[in-house]
Write a structure and sequence with these properties.
The protein is of the alpha+beta class and 289 residues long. The chain is built from ten helices and eight strands. Strands 3, 4, 5, 6 and 7 form a five-stranded antiparallel β-sheet that branches. Strand 1 and strand 2 form a beta hairpin. Helix 2 crosses helix 5 (101-126), helix 3 packs across helix 10 and helix 4 (80-93) packs across helix 5.
Length: 289
């Protein structure tokens, strides 16, 4: 009896070793393992027709699966018209391959992934993002004089500008946080302060589709990115802003020339929930050798 038990164990181990060797796990997502043979249909098209290496195709598939799993977990499901639209775009792009089985298998994953990306962009444009960006510029003495003359740069004035702006940023941040001043009053005062930059770019922004894009409403693209990435309503932290300046150490170097903070009245709940799920998703890629 013991002999047969040992024989069974040996057979089981042999089969397991054969499986690991000939059909290894490529990646694991949300405690589900995905093996090479199961994934093979979805990488055949790019490897056979688009000159993509097997490893690169599998890595790309891993990223796509993570997006698809995260979308499902957070109920971030694109409407059917989004999926059909992406299929049509891909069919137009790869029209000479669309009757091959390799392409059809690949399309089933690729179109789902692209539909989720399209839904993210749609939500960003149509969401109810609304709030304020308060900007405190102290870089006016960090730029060269007229005609490229750097002799006008005064280090003491530059330091004084920075100290004043940091003081004002901390003051308004705390006043808004404690409710001592309204958002509109803070905006008016900051924009009218001549020591906070000529034509201070602080603003009340919105993603109302009738109004120009968020990028055109705020002073810098970095601020627009911060607005879209801030995950909670209310007051954000004071952030350093960077811009090109001819101030030391070298011409056109990127230097901290302003600070800013954001107050969000509304933000995109759907995108935020999906992004949080994707970021926290338990996953691991094991490269095929």
């Amino acid at each position: 009896m013991l002999f047969f038990i040992m024989l069974g164990i040996i057979c089981y181990l042999s089969i397991a070793i054969f499986e690991i060797k000939n059909n290894p796990v490529v990646f694991t997502i949300d405690n589900v393992t995905y093996r090479e043979k199961d994934l093979s249909p979805y990488v055949s098209f790019p490897t056979k027709y688009l000159n993509v290496s097997k490893n690169d195709a599998l890595k790309g598939l891993y990223d796509q699966y993570r997006v698809i799993v995260a979308a499902k977990k957070s109920n971030f499901i694109p409407p059917n018209q989004f999926l059909e639209s992406q299929k049509n775009l891909l069919n137009d792009k790869y029209s000479s391959y669309k009757n091959t089985q390799e392409y059809k298998d690949w399309l089933s994953v690729e179109s789902s992934y692209e539909a989720i990306q399209a839904l993210k962009q749609f939500n960003q444009k149509e969401s109810g993002i609304d709030g304020y960006s308060f900007v405190f510029w102290f870089g006016k003495h960090m730029s060269e004089g007229l005609g490229g003359d750097k002799s006008s740069i005064d280090l003491s004035l530059a330091a004084s500008d920075k100290a004043y702006c940091l003081d004002r940023a901390n003051y308004y941040h705390e006043a808004i946080k404690s409710g001592k001043i309204s958002l509109e009053t803070a905006l008016t005062q900051i924009k009218s302060d001549p020591n906070l930059g000529f034509g201070n770019p602080s603003t009340h922004f919105t993603n109302d589709p009738k109004i120009p894009s968020l990028q055109s409403q705020v002073a810098y693209s970095a601020i627009a990115d911060s607005i879209e990435n801030q995950k909670n309503k209310g007051l954000g932290a004071i952030i350093n802003g960077y811009s090109n300046t001819t101030f030391n150490p070298s011409p056109n170097s990127s230097k901290n020339t302003y600070v800013y903070f954001i107050y969000l009245n509304e933000y995109n709940d759907l995108n935020a929930k999906y992004n949080k799920t994707l970021t926290s998703l338990n996953s691991r890629y094991g490269e095929i050798k």
